[in-house]
Write a structure and sequence with these properties.
The complex is a heterodimer of chains A (455) and B (487).
Chain A (H helix, E strand, L loop, with lengths): L7 H11 L28 H15 L3 E2 L12 H7 L2 H4 L11 H18 L3 E2 L6 H14 L8 E5 L4 H11 L5 E5 L10 H8 L5 E6 L9 H10 L3 E6 L24 E5 L15 E5 L12 E5 L5 E5 L6 H4 L12 H38 L5 E2 L9 E4 L4 H9 L3 E2 L2 E2 L10 E4 L7 H15 L1
Parallel strand pairs in A: 1-13, 3-4, 3-5, 5-6, 6-7
Antiparallel strand pairs in A: 2-8, 7-8, 9-10, 11-12, 12-15, 14-15
Chain B lengths: L42 H12 L22 H7 L2 H4 L11 H18 L3 E3 L5 H18 L7 E5 L5 H8 L3 E5 L9 H7 L4 E7 L11 H10 L3 E6 L11 H4 L3 E4 L19 E3 L11 E4 L8 E4 L18 H39 L3 E2 L10 E4 L1 H6 L4 H10 L6 E2 L8 E4 L7 H20 L1 H5 L12 H6 L11
Parallel strand pairs in B: 2-3, 2-4, 4-5, 5-6
Antiparallel strand pairs in B: 1-7, 6-7, 8-9, 10-11, 11-13, 12-13
Classes of the chains: A alpha/beta (455), B alpha/beta (487).
The complex binds pyridoxal-5'-phosphate (PLP).
The site of pyridoxal-5'-phosphate has 13 residues of chain B, from helix 5.
Chain lengths: 455, 487
């Protein structure tokens, strides 16, 4: 029987021990009227058959030359990362509640927390949230809990935040009386309108969300935004791409140098750190904060301590924030997180180190620059925003964007996403991205095919 | 030793990084001044470090893991291999659907199979774990009442035996939690329930079989009572393994259910995640389902399978993840479901139940007290060590730690909270009889040792990489990141 080891002899002797006449008799507490005879699902397949089926389905999808970013980024992942991550000892282990039997996972998370605090310039990291969007929702909720004296529930949400993130935030945090105020952006630069931010601050704020690079790939005026948040007694919530932080100033250092405070909460999508784009998941959300707010942080946290012989060891700590202890008073309902993805990210960061990450980031930056240059050499294709971008940019096409993208997809090129769906005023615009995985030839091919489609 | 303690300035795995490029033109004031403090090691050093760390873990692949409510069954390797085919891994979530028909067909068929297994009218795979499935479910319940103009329904009823995520979820959805007690036989206190249902009831969250390891026998009456009062029923599907292919939550009267695919459908727990919390709904909740999920169009072609979005489902509670939820986890569940097929699914419940009842009987015969001796075990059961705690001064925690020395992962301890000194034991269907017998021997061994020398048991474990850890110190002298000594 698939995945069931019992022989006829086993079954007989076990039933004998239980003193039950049959396996069916073990279900005798279930009302007869509720029991079903048979399911409608197809009959089972063996490993050879399902292998054939899945290979056929995969082949049907094929692989395209991808220039889409928009929250999920294709990077080269060293072979060692997933070979080690899928070792049974990581892959098939449970949440490390029994610390003595889980030192591998626990130490790894402690190392991960250290790496994330190094990238973000924060004091504390948790062990992961579901994804970047849900991490932002939890960060917003946390910012309210963290300021009991601040009565405002208004959170400023720039329209340069990923549109899907904004949706997720209202869907998850909306039930708890938070108010999200949309902040417009400058149509020339693609950057958040600081005057609009200041104006909204006059009615009081709980926090300002600061996305960088923002949805358009542009680098926001983070120093000014952090200072405005703090000057108005609000918290600064950074939502960022950890890969870019190998080059960018860590959120913990944003803002006025004298004040030396930086962002208060930093979150985002961890996928660029060693996790494949894999149709949207599993990824992981990261979340870091300043020491002062650690007791309001959702999710698991690992701490270093000693055992009864004084030997160093690791354990889940501050669990009194979590649902299994605090139930309805917990900081969040999250239980299962994205542990295995964190395992991959930790190994990825260890192998590449800061130097390797810098190269990945710089190479993605320069590839995107090069791509935009090639694309805008085509007649009628124009750059849209003047702000400095990281590894993603918006360009305007002379034709309807979805139609052009569909034509490109028939040439096995995913040529970015159409912006019009999210920003109607940018109807013919596309958001493109070229990471370090793209060669000069790839970039030229894209430009050449786009030119052909447009002519 | 930490990975950081292997660091040497300037070292990194050059073969894995791209070539160096010219400096960026990022404005100086936005640039990092100092290199981030990540490890600086060779590829071999990283590989060796993380391989060695892995060896400090218990896992299903190395140990029996009778962790109640967690369904630690074997995670078939084929599921992983086939979900990690390069085409699936390299597919961008926003790539054109014409290049994802194979993947989307898998998702569609998984939705279909889960509908059948649960007896629900629709399934969405987007929630990323059980707790997010709960969130989706309760959010749909409140959206349903609101859509009907029934604005007073803000209470969610939760039994005291419920998992912590249930009340925490209700609060996140802006509801009030009303707790009801459990009776001595493990069933919900029906009379107490009667007293609290009413015009304020939004719904009730139930787990069946409950977290006490018994089937809620009056489920039909409960459903009727709550429905008559205008409330809806939420099914926490963490224990679906017990009834797979035998009984369906939809037939019991539930309006919405989450499944933990990382339990029942054998996707790995991965040291804490990722999971997948697929949600099934009855007809009346269809308009509120979270998006996106996959629909199948009549005409074949490059868009036969497509995403349902809010355009088609304007009353949807919306998107709960940036993209499509934990797609790769869902692919693993799909492979597993296809391998089991309809016969295999029923066998899951049958042999999970056989193993649990066998183990329960053997432990009872060996002198352990059961929390519900009069009841059948479902796929799990509870041993209470109240007597041992009193007479021998050895509690559930001590037992759990001593079992680690015996080479077994501990059962779930101190959950559910209402049974004192409890061990919630779930063997799952993938364990062989001889493994269960060895576990009984280990339990008996710990019991004998406790009778002989309880102090020795109280200091267990001895053979693990570390001994019992100082949790109080961990919380008081918080050390959650490595800070190098600047000597
Ligand atoms: C009964 C019960 N409900 C809900 C959950 C929460 O599921 P998850 O951890 O996938 O969020 C769990 C699992 O831990 C559980 O055992």
């Amino acid at each position: 029987m698939p995945f069931i080891p019992h022989t006829e002899t086993d079954i007989e002797s076990m039933l004998d021990t239980i003193a039950a006449p049959s396996i069916d008799a073990l279900f005798d507490e279930i009302p007869e009227s509720l029991r079903i005879k048979e399911l409608n699902v197809p009959t089972g397949m063996n490993e050879m058959e399902i292998t054939r089926l899945m290979h056929d389905r995969a082949k049907q999808d094929g692989q395209v030359l991808n220039f889409i970013g928009a929250g999920a980024y294709e990077h080269h992942i060293p072979a060692a990362v997933w070979q080690i991550t899928t070792r049974g000892e990581y892959y098939s282990a449970y949440t490390p509640y029994q610390a003595e039997a889980s030192q591998g996972t626990l130490q790894l998370i402690y190392e991960y927390q250290t790496m994330m605090t190094a990238l973000t310039g924060m004091d504390v990291s948790n062990a992961s949230m579901y994804d970047g969007a849900s991490a932002l929702a939890e960060s917003c909720l946390m910012s309210i809990r963290a300021q009991r004296r601040n009565k405002s529930v208004r959170i400023l949400m720039p329209l340069t935040v990923h549109p899907f993130y904004r949706q997720v935030v209202t869907n998850i945090a909306g039930g708890q009386n938070l108010e999200f105020i949309e902040i417009p952006f400058d149509k020339k630069t693609g950057l958040t309108d600081l005057d609009a931010v200041k104006a909204e601050c006059e009615k009081g704020i709980a926090a300002i969300v600061i996305p960088t690079p923002n949805f358009f790939g542009a680098l926001e005026p983070v120093d000014e935004l952090v200072d405005i948040a703090h000057a108005n007694n609000g918290l600064a919530i950074a939502v960022t791409n950890p890969m870019t932080l190998s080059l960018l100033k860590p959120p913990g250092e944003w803002g006025n140098v004298e004040e030396n405070r930086g962002a208060d909460i930093v979150c985002g999508e961890g996928q660029p750190l060693g996790v494949p784009v894999s149709s949207g998941g599993p990824y992981f959300g990261f979340m870091c904060c300043k020491q002062a707010y650690v007791r309001q942080m959702p999710g698991r946290i690992v701490g270093r301590t000693v055992d009864l012989e004084g030997k160093e060891g690791f354990t889940l700590t501050l669990q009194a924030r979590e649902q299994h202890i605090r139930r309805s008073k917990a900081t969040s309902n999250i239980c299962t997180n994205q542990g295995l993805m964190v395992t991959a990210a930790t190994i990825y960061m260890s192998i590449l180190g800061a130097q390797g990450l810098e190269r990945v980031a710089a190479s993605s930056y320069s590839n995107t620059k090069q791509l935009v240059k090639l694309l805008t050499q085509i007649d009628g294709v124009e750059p849209v925003f003047s702000g400095e971008v990281f590894h993603e940019a918006v360009v305007q096409l002379p034709k309807d964007a979805p139609t052009v993208l569909e034509a490109l997809s028939h040439k096995h090129i995913a040529g970015g996403i159409a912006l019009g769906e999210f920003y109607p005023e940018f109807k013919n615009c596309i958001l493109v991205c070229a990471t370090e995985t793209k060669t000069e030839a790839d970039l030229k091919l894209f430009a050449q095919e786009l030119k052909a489609v447009l002519s | 030793m930490l990975i950081f303690e292997h660091s040497h300035t300037g070292r990194f795995a050059a073969a894995q990084a791209p070539h160096e490029v010219a400096e960026t033109a990022i404005p100086k004031h936005l640039q990092r001044k100092e290199r981030a403090g990540l490890p600086e090691v060779s590829e071999l050093q990283a590989v060796r470090h993380y391989t060695r760390l892995s060896q400090k873990n218990f896992s299903i692949d190395t140990q029996f893991y009778p962790l109640g409510s967690c369904t630690m069954k074997y995670n078939p390797r084929a599921c992983n291999t086939l979900a990690m085919l390069p085409e699936f891994l390299s597919r961008h979530p926003l790539a054109p659907v014409s290049h994802g028909q194979g993947f989307m067909q898998c998702m569609y068929e998984l939705q279909d199979m889960l509908e059948d297994v649960t007896g629900m009218a629709g399934v969405t795979l987007t929630p990323m774990a059980g707790a997010q499935g709960e969130f989706a479910g309760v959010a749909m319940i409140t959206a349903y009442h609101k859509a009907r103009g029934d604005l007073e329904r803000t209470q969610i009823i939760v039994p005291d035996a419920a998992h912590g995520t249930n009340p925490a979820t209700a609060i996140m959805c802006g509801c009030e939690v009303i707790e009801i007690p459990t009776m001595k036989d493990g069933d919900v206190d029906f009379e107490a329930l009667k007293k609290v249902v009413g015009p304020k009831t939004a719904g009730i969250m139930l787990t069946n079989p409950s977290t006490l390891g018994v089937f809620e026998r009056r489920i039909k009456e409960i459903a009727e009572l709550v429905h008559d009062a205008g409330g809806l029923l939420y099914y926490d599907g963490a224990n679906l393994n017990a009834i797979l292919g035998k009984v369906r939550p939809g037939d019991m009267g539930f309006d919405v259910i989450h499944m933990n695919l990382h339990k029942t459908f054998s996707t790995p727990h991965g040291g804490g995640g990722p999971g997948s919390g697929a949600v099934g709904v009855s007809k009346r909740l269809l308009p509120f389902m979270p998006i996106p999920f996959v629909k199948k169009n009549k005409e074949a072609g490059e868009r036969q399978y497509d995403w349902v979005t809010e355009k088609e489902l304007p009353q949807s509670i919306g998107r709960l993840s940036a993209f499509m939820g934990n797609a790769g986890v869902n692919l693993r569940a799909y492979v597993y479901a296809r391998m089991l097929g309809k016969e295999g699914m029923q066998r899951v419940a049958e042999f999970a139940t056989l193993n649990a009842n066998y183990l329960m009987k053997r432990l009872a015969d060996a002198g352990f007290d059961l929390a519900f001796p009069e009841r059948r075990a479902t796929h799990e059961f509870i041993v209470t060590l109240k007597k041992q705690a009193k007479e021998l001064n050895v509690n559930a925690m001590d037992f759990a730690k001593a079992l680690l020395d015996e080479g077994f992962h501990a059962p779930t301890t101190y959950f559910p909270l209402l049974v004192p000194e409890c061990l919630l034991i779930e063997p799952t269907e993938t364990e062989a009889k001889e493994e269960l017998d060895l576990f009984v021997d280990a339990m008996v061994n710990v019991l004998r040792n406790s009778e002989k020398d309880s102090e020795q048991v109280k200091a267990a474990p001895y053979t693990t990489p570390v001994r019992r850890l100082d949790d109080v110190r961990a919380a008081k002298q918080l050390d959650v990141r490595y800070v190098p000594d600047v000597a």
